[in-house]
Amino acid sequence: MSSKALLSWIALFALMAALGSATLIYYSTTTHSTLATDVNTAYHNHLSLEMYSKDKNAQWLDDIKSAPSHSLPLPLQQIYETQARLKSRFLANMVEQVDLPQSYQNAISQLPLIANAELETRTNQQLKILLITGLAFAVLTLFLGFYVWFMRTKHFSPLYRIVNTLRAQALNGSPLSVAPTNSDADVKRLTQAIHAATTSQSQKLASAAIIESYNRELKSITGSEPIVRHALEFIANEFNAPSVCLYANLEDDTLSLVKSHGVTPSHSIIASTIALCATNNEPQVQQEPLWLKEEEVEVKLQSRYCFPLAIGNHVVYVLLVGSAQALIDSQFEALEYLCKDLSLALAINENIEKQQKTESAFKRTT
Fold first, then answer.
1. Does residue 196 contact residue 202 with C-beta atoms inside 8 Å?
2. Gap between the Cα atoms of 44 and 47, Å rounded
3. Over the chain, what is the mean pLDDT?
4. How far is it, in rounded angstroms, from Cα 197 to Cα 230?
5. Contact 319, 341 (CB under 8 A)
6. Using alpha carbons only, how large is the chain's radius of gyration in Å?
């Protein structure tokens, strides 16, 4: 849920509270008006009874109204009932001495007090309801406000920072990367996913840049030996490989060292690995660390990788790369691609050299 949605919910609750307050005020006003009308009606009935007791005119009895159908306070209800009984008695005996009962007169004298007490009671009840409603709305508003603050701090702010960081990196042309965060689980998982995606993307872009750089430099090199020397040096520099060796796969299925760059491992150590690579025409990986020593310098190879350089299905060379650190997937794929380019370049140059030798021999014979 976004912060705008949360604020919309708060606005909705505020509108509901305002409508509830307006309804309560309307009900309070209507209730007071109804009670005042009932009291005025009861007092008007009393005046009609008094006038009838004086001049015995039945017209006054016709002006007496019955109790309303809605609920009334008990004292007011009793006054209406007494007035109805007196009206019935007066109509039944028009000549009898008319005297209003003393209890009735006492009740009528208390009518203003009854009305004021009832109005005060209802007002207090409505104020309590209004106070409870206001407090409930205030508590709800505070809760939702805290929830908005919590969501913005724990959820939205980290996301905003991630988006702003990625936008700034994209505008500056730098590799996309997001540092892991210690926010709550959801944001942390999202950040880790974005971090993994951007890291993978950056690694693939870096590998693509390596391949492009190699192909660009390869175009200006001619001759098999310069191509091999450049390739070994390039791989050693770009992939932090202290040992890079190229072996030729001879016709008797033996492997002979053609060229090396850096430290050359003993043939007995890597013989089985390069032979398996040449036989299966598949890359071979060894992750066991290997210490090599040459000219009083010790070098640690963290991982060793063998790549076949094949023309069609025939393995012509095997490239051994001894890296000081384990290669990531994008680097491994880049090395595979470089080996394909290298094998193709060597095949083309060897064909050119053979053709040149053939042409030279033909010229000498002629």
1. no
2. 5
3. 79
4. 33
5. no
6. 51
